[in-house]
Amino acid sequence: MAQLKVFITRPIPEEIRAKIAAECEVDMWHTSAILPPIAEKIPPLDGLMTYGHEPVSPEMIATSPNLKVISVVGVGYDHVHVETCRERGIAVGHTPGVLSDTTADMTMALLLAASRNIVPADKHVQTKQWLYYDPNILWGYDVHHATIGIVGMGRIGYAVAKRALAFDMRVLYYKRERRRDWEEELGIKYVDMEHLLRDSDFVTLHVPLTDETTHMIGKAELALMKSTAILVNIARGPVVDHYALYDALREGQIAGAALDVTEPEPLNIDHPLLGLDNVIIAPHLGSATIQTRMKMATMAMENLLAGLKGEQLPYGVLQPNF
Ligand code: DGY
Predict the structure, then answer these.
(1) What is the pTM of this model?
(2) Which of 60, 87, 182, 184 is the most exposed, fewest CB within 10 Å of its CB?
């Protein structure tokens, strides 16, 4: 496949890059610090591996008349214009499953950090304000025996439910199609969105980004939540209307938020959310562990190489020829 050209949008582990390079010509963008050019300045491609969320638009796709496969290093593929790929017969792959536990761990990390004030506590000590034991500072909220409302009960939602149960939490969930099998297996309860928002101490978001889920948490939804509730978004930034969230946090309509994803990413340096002390924000780290990122890169490589050969992708989203 030496003549086939592939572009990788950010550095992936060298051993994976080398395996791809053994089979085709690879151009890999050298840094994460400057956005990759994914249309101009690169020759027409046979394969594209996206490691990041820059839009792969119809215009970008049009620059590569022979594009055979787009391999996403990640489970979410909302940045890829799948309709154009369908029309053009381009295969699209992603990396589901392998990151569910890791992302669920991060959900719990954010939930615990927000409820127990871990970030302000660390700042308190690091800025040398810890001068005596003060029993009256940084009181948080109990996690154990609290109610968690999981929005989106897919692989990640399921893994979050299992962790929440280990904390003796009461688990509510909302999903378009009920998972009665998981209700039975885990003892979790299906409720509608309104019930979930009203009843939960913690609301965690795990839905894919679609037209339907864009801004699904806005002013009206935040108004339904308890004033003691904490919102965790580890799905996609645009699932939450950030200006409505800012108002809700500033006015104490909800107690706090922990975001692993934002709209846009990164947030502009003067974004109002950055000035609040009841929000913590991580730079999109849900699946960022050494083990999981290696597995994701491996799966993405397998998708890419299969797609270049015209074979069925092992982890396909869209496989027009199969
Ligand atoms: C995913 O897997 O979708 C993460 O957001 C990383 O892209």
Answers:
(1) 0.97
(2) 184
